[in-house]
């Protein structure tokens, strides 16, 4: 019974791969990336490292920056009521005490610890593109730049969503375009430039659209959920609400980047976007480089043994035993022996126990 079920599952899998090859490759890559585990790790790093950095920076920053952060968070999540009150108390309640406790060294340590979020996001992008892990020497400054850039982007969320005073009619398309550009740049930065810009565009488009849709969902879901959790569980309630929403958000990011990487390697989009594939495929796609066809690839470089009866190349010995001459009286050097790949194939004549050249 068990063998019959396994055989049936195998037949269904092969049929799925035959008739829906793109979906089959997408599903295989999503399983390889392990979307749920990667999203959970990414959300945990965001909640434990990046969000405290935001609170510390807002508390140590000037008053105008603090107000801008509050307005941006309220606009992004649609906060009102007790949730908005808690947010203002968190930022404005104990600024002097926090400045004395944290200081510049504490801010620096918070920034360095926030790079754990950058490293987790970098690993998601590398797994989506089947890349090896970049060395810390190359990627360290990119982690800091990415975290700092996202803090700036979060501060600008309020004015961006309002269309810089023009209203939602301009704010919605601006938010979508900005989201696509940010995720396009994010992939290029965290992949250390190992994948060119155009192949990263499908993933950026999918992620930008998904994040715009998630932002609408957040404005509908987060305010009521935060207010209910505050009333039922106190200050601990919003932790579970925000962490659950972050896991869903990071799952969407991981899935969209992975699907975009698979689509960029499909034949049609690969030709359109210039995604490297086939012969000479770079190691950036998780495979060792393939040497281009030529004499060196087939052992036909100068100095290799020549064909039967031919004189050897300069300084080498052919099968006839003659050696290329050198010196002032040798005249012009003979042309290099052709490679085996360049010669027309002819079956070798049997010579006793010899198996051929």
Descriptive overview:
- InterPro entries: Virul_fac_BrkB.
- It is found in: Cell membrane.
- It is a multi-pass membrane protein.
- Keywords: Cell membrane, Membrane, Transmembrane, Transmembrane helix.
- It is built from 13 helices and no strands.
- The chain is mainly α and 357 residues long.
Please give the structural blueprint:
Layout: H1 2-19, H2 21-33, H3 35-60, H4 63-77, H5 82-92, H6 95-113, H7 115-128, H8 136-155, H9 157-161, H10 168-190, H11 201-233, H12 237-264, H13 267-273
Helix pairs in contact: 1-2, 2-12, 3-6, 3-7, 3-12, 7-8, 7-12, 10-11, 11-12
Jot down its keywords.
357 residues, 13 helices, disordered C terminus, transmembrane helix, transmembrane, membrane, cell membrane
Shape: globular
- Output the number of helix runs: 13
Question: Roughly what is the average pLDDT, rounded to an integer?
Answer: 73
DSSP strand count = 0
Low-confidence stretches: 278-330, 339-357
Give helix and strand order, one letter per element, not per position. Answer: HHHHHHHHHHHHH
Cα gyration radius (Å): 30 Å
Largest sheet: number of strands, sense, barrel closure: none
Helix and strand composition category: mainly alpha
> How far do the termini sit from each other?
56 Å
Helix content: 55-70%
Q: In percent, how much strand structure appears in the residues?
A: under 5%
